[in-house]
């Protein structure tokens, strides 16, 4: 009889545990759905880039680019943050006077020339560069500031 009672107790315990597991799973799934919605909203708001900045850099100038960017970041404080020097997807530029000019001049001087001279590749470069540097292409003022800095850097390199 003890064995039978023990089996019944085990069945009751298993049922109670199963119900608690189901409740926790339901709560977990509800929370997961909430987080999925937040992530999808963030993805809609954020702009995705085609390639990280390092992709556009001329191979022969890559080490010089990283060194100079590091100097602009660590010593000169023109850059406040770079996400990863080996796969640059975001650069935060300091609001200090001259920062924009220095960053753009460095980047444009190290870009592989095919991306500057080929029209379709230039469009992709400008779009990615605007996103990487934190400019909003949908905002007129922001995009004008980006274009001015971009073309000024190209002009200063050509001289």
Please provide a written account of the structure.
The protein has 159 residues and is mostly helical. Helices cover 69% and strands 4% of the residues. The protein contains seven helices and two strands. A two-stranded antiparallel sheet has the order 1-2. Strand 1 (79-82) and strand 2 (91-93) form a beta hairpin. The radius of gyration is 27 Å and the shape is elongated.
Properties at a glance:
159 residues, mainly alpha, two-stranded antiparallel ribbon, 7 helices, 69% helix, elongated
* Estimated helix fraction: 55-70%
Radius of gyration: 27 Å
Amino- and carboxy-terminal Cα gap: 99 Å
Strand content: under 5%
Q: What overall geometry do the principal axes of the alpha carbons give?
A: elongated
Q: How would you write the strand order of the largest sheet?
A: 1-2
Structural class: mainly alpha
Instruction: Summarize the helix and strand pattern as letters.
Output: HHHEEHHHH
Topology:
Blueprint: H1 2-45, H2 53-56, H3 62-74, E1 79-82, E2 91-93, H4 99-110, H5 114-117, H6 119-132, H7 140-158
Antiparallel strand pairs: 1-2
Helix pairs in contact: 3-4, 4-7
State the gist of this model:
The protein is mainly alpha-helical. It has helices spanning 2-45, 53-56, 62-74, 99-110, 114-117, 119-132, 140-158, and strands spanning 79-82, 91-93. α4 (99-110) crosses α7.
